[in-house]
Amino acid sequence: MVPVGVILVITNLQVLAVRFFNPPSTSYMIWKAIRSRADIAPKKLRYWRSLEEISPYLRKAVLAGEDQRFLSHHGFDIIELEGAIKDLARKKGKRGASTITMQVARTLYLWPGRSWLRKAIEAYYTVLIELYWPKERILEVYLNTVDWGTGVIGAEAAARRYFSTTCSKITKGQAAAMAAILPSPHKWSPVRPNGYVKRRKMRILRDIDKMPLL
């Protein structure tokens, strides 16, 4: 068995390294590639764009749609967690309470699944990411590693796939449409939105100007 001290050192170095160096791939991508029967799952990050190279509209739209209290929390949005617990108790269905930092933690370092062990490790990595990275770096890594549909990883790949443009030239409406599908990118489309995605897009458009620009 690997000593706990060694595990702590390795995981801290893992997270600290990504503050300064862009990861060539993610744990999520590797698992998807292994489990995919067709050769459509990307195995490495094809594009990487700095935060300044990504449209301000897209940066703000993602915050509006995924994590409006991103700058004020330290990895865990207590307000959303409380709301999710209340909804569960009232049998109103599941509400997503994952912050952008939590999503980065599981995308970069963890395996797919919903076990309590994975949630505990996700929380551990979330703390480390918030400890070592500035918020700008967290958002940059998120935008470059988030799953935006089958075979589509990151903002640049998504901009090219859905709108035949680059992520630096995404418009406000396109940004809202892209952010609207993030809860379920393999089910929904920003170019062929269903009613729910249209409503999410409109809400994001209403909130987008309230978001800070990182």
Give the SSE map:
Blueprint: H1 4-20, H2 27-35, H3 56-66, H4 78-89, H5 100-109, H6 116-132, H7 135-145, H8 155-163, H9 172-180, H10 195-207
What does this structure look like?
- The protein is mainly alpha-helical and 214 residues long.
- The chain has a single domain, classed as Biosynthetic peptidoglycan transglycosylase-like (Penicillin binding protein transpeptidase fold, Orthogonal Bundle), CATH 1.10.3810.
- 55% of the residues lie in helices and 0% in strands.
- It contains ten helices and no strands.
- Helix 3 runs parallel beside helix 9, helix 5 packs across helix 6 and helix 9 crosses helix 10.
- The termini are far apart.
- The model has no long low-confidence stretch (mean pLDDT 91).
Q: Proportion of β residues?
A: under 5%
Oligomer: single chain
Helix/strand/pairing category: mainly alpha
Helix content: 55-70%
Q: Kindly report the CATH topology.
A: Penicillin binding protein transpeptidase fold
Q: Please tally the β strands and state the result.
A: 0
For the record, the count of structural domains works out to: 1
Unreliable residue stretches: none
- The radius of gyration is 17 Å
Q: Indicate the CATH architecture.
A: Orthogonal Bundle
Largest sheet: none
